[in-house]
Hints:
The structure is a homodimer. The first copy, chain A, is of the alpha+beta class. Chain A is built from 10 helices and 13 strands. The longest helix of chain A has 15 residues, at about 60-75. Chain A starts with a helix and ends in a 28-residue tail after the last strand.
Amino acid sequence: MTTAADYRADVYPTRSDAEEWLPRLDPVVWSDASAGPIDADGLKRFDAAGYLAIDELITAEQVRALRDELVGLCSDERLRADERTVIEPTSEQVRSIFEVHVLSPLVAELIRDERVVGRARQLLGSDVYVHQSRVNFKPGFAGKEFYWHSDFETWHAEDGMPRMRAVSISISLTDNYTYNGALMIMPGSHQTYVSCAGATPEDNYKTSLRQQEIGTPSHEALAGLYAQHGIDTLVGPAGGATMFDSNCMHGSNGNISPLARSNIFVVFNSVDNACQQPYAARQPRPSFIGARDFTPVR
Amino acid sequence: MTTAADYRADVYPTRSDAEEWLPRLDPVVWSDASAGPIDADGLKRFDAAGYLAIDELITAEQVRALRDELVGLCSDERLRADERTVIEPTSEQVRSIFEVHVLSPLVAELIRDERVVGRARQLLGSDVYVHQSRVNFKPGFAGKEFYWHSDFETWHAEDGMPRMRAVSISISLTDNYTYNGALMIMPGSHQTYVSCAGATPEDNYKTSLRQQEIGTPSHEALAGLYAQHGIDTLVGPAGGATMFDSNCMHGSNGNISPLARSNIFVVFNSVDNACQQPYAARQPRPSFIGARDFTPVR
């Protein structure tokens, strides 16, 4: 059993002098099939691969309504200038808008939907709160890649998330093909924690949201993980979703295809794993990136 | 029948004020199944899609020997400084070496191999010469994309290639997956000639080999071609090859996977379609990019 003292200790040290591979110390699935919408087979697959694809999470009508609402946000000039909005370095298009569950009533409602939060509660075996939410727009023709990283490494180092007890859901607002920058996961990589080399610069998030450099594994580590696990590319139609563990090694290629790729991305963290002081940064990132309000989703 | 006068006329104008879609005026397959190694079904598929995948063109042993020879060329400091070598803008790694059939006896031998030149002669219905050859190295982790283009548009505008009677072969020296920047082709796009807007700058090739900007279709044109044709991603093991028509709309995404992607790329042109003065540039590109010696491969 994990005690309060364990949550204060830094069991996943990172951003030090040398890269290191450490074993995962936490379960991946924290409850069972009786506790929510995911069946025993789904839980087993999530446990093994670190992710679970859901073919049809929301209807075509919901996709349309969400897309209209979120595209509307992009054309709001005040929001474009807001720090919650990330602009693509070259194309000047909106790449992401954070705290989208605060900005959009439709997204807030979606998150409270049992199909979404129910799965998160089930996987994490407790009440959950939203650690981060955002909408990502990867434009056609010029979408930039997202380099390989484990989200948990950043959340631990920069947001103070103690343990691996968080799960992300990426809900597709557009069709995902292998050629339009779909999510790539190294299945099984969630069992290994790559402790990254290099200290965290002040206000690292300002550049890392555009292009992450600190907190990414070396080429050698990635080649090693690839040799063990390979790469799965998550394809499927709009309305589907992928849930993935906080420590999955994942990334996505650029996109020169004419098809944009948009998704809503929500991170649920267990209320028993609430963030503390960062483990490898001077101060926590702003709350629109890593929430400091741990009120459970109801 | 095509007369000499037709070869002087500019039936595929480009680099003007406005983009335009023009029909292809030339056959795709210039002979039949009795004329070479490709069977009737293969020719039919090439005619329809504009490309043909060959699963096993050369042996694993040949792949190894070629790879050793070509990687050797990369570490030749004199050749690195040679204008035939293209260096990646960011990573400083060798991206391409041109005229590789002149630099490498093994590649020269490969090109003369009936499995290679025989197929080209069959598709083009005549003797053929090498218009261009190169080896491409797309490094892992940081491989840059190749934006959409029709090779013929450039060869016509900048090298003076009169008609669509050339074929490329890309021979894989590494495995191609959907996630390591494999070749993408819009199947059937070879039937449409996208006449591109914009004049050719002086010495355009010096920048276009790194990043092509002139001679690429607009977003609207690419979205239109995609709606008609979709995208095929050419995957398969090392030793395989893809032959594709000079007017296929093609490109490739960047590559953050740990797997490098290398291939030998050879363009065969019909001796009856030898290059003339460029149709939309002041002078032809250097001969290491577009040959001015039309001696048939024997």
